[in-house]
Amino acid sequence: MQMNEKGKLLVISGPSGAGKSTVIGRLMEMRDDVCFSVSVTTRPPRPTEQEGVDYFFVSPQRFQELAEGGFLLEHAEYVGNRYGTPRGYVEQRMLEGKSVILDIEVQGAGQISRNCPDAITVFILPPSGEELERRLRHRNTDADETIRQRLLQAKRECAEAGKYDYIVINDDPGAAAAEVNAILTAEKCRAADRIKLVTEVLIS
Q: What is the reported pTM?
């Protein structure tokens, strides 16, 4: 990577249970030029989640202050909770040459696409509806009614997959991460982004 190359904004969406977190984890093991943007949420933390690592957990009032103050790049409500992306963190890391990964739902991804036209959008699909339900139940963190709501939400989200730049099927997390890795590599090689390097080569 050239030190003067700006990082990319990589938006990854998909229904709960599609395995987005696992794919992102594998991708980050493959590259040293990416970082994960931690979202702000009003959702209570799960037992294994850590403040500032998995999410920044805030009160609904604090979230509203951040949204109204323009400190969030996008924000949305999902299954009764609010989520948002800290603007300053994302912009600073991209200037440093890091590609920033956002794990956000389709409503937030739509805001990103409007506000950041150069963002790369990837939708992660589970291999089947049956597998999606199996993964959700295997978590043992949600009640049956919550799982039912997540499955209904998944159908609505998958209907939006065609609006994304790329669709990756997560049947195997390693293979899915390799596809996302290839997408990011190709996007960083676009002539529009690297044409300035041609001038540098000619001058030297």
A: 0.81
Domains of the chain (ranges; CATH) run 9-37+99-203 (3.40.50.300)
- How far is CA 201 from each of CA 3, 158, 194, rounded to the nearest angstrom? 15, 45, 11
Q: What is the pLDDT of residues 49-74, one digit of tens each?
A: 999 888 999 999 999 999 999 899 99
**Per-residue pLDDT reduced to its tens digit, 101-158:** 999 889 889 999 988 999 999 999 998 888 888 878 887 777 888 888 888 888 899 9
In Å, how far from its chain's centre is CA 143?
25
What's the angle, vertex CA 76, arms to CA 150 and CA 122, rounded to 5? 70
Transcribe 116-181 into DSSP letters.
-TT-EEEEEEPS-HHHHHHHHHHH--S-HHHHHHHHHHHHHHHTTGGGSSEEEE-SSHHHHHHHHH
Rounded to whole angstroms, the Cα distance separating 124 from 154 reads: 11
Helix (H) or strand (E) holding 107, with range, is: helix 106-115
pLDDT band at 2 (very low <50, low <70, confident <90, very high): very low
Pick the closest to residue 14 from 113, 99, 102 (CA basis): 102
Q: How far apart are CA 28 and CA 33, in angstroms?
A: 8
Q: Which two tokens stand for residue 108?
A: 């937030």
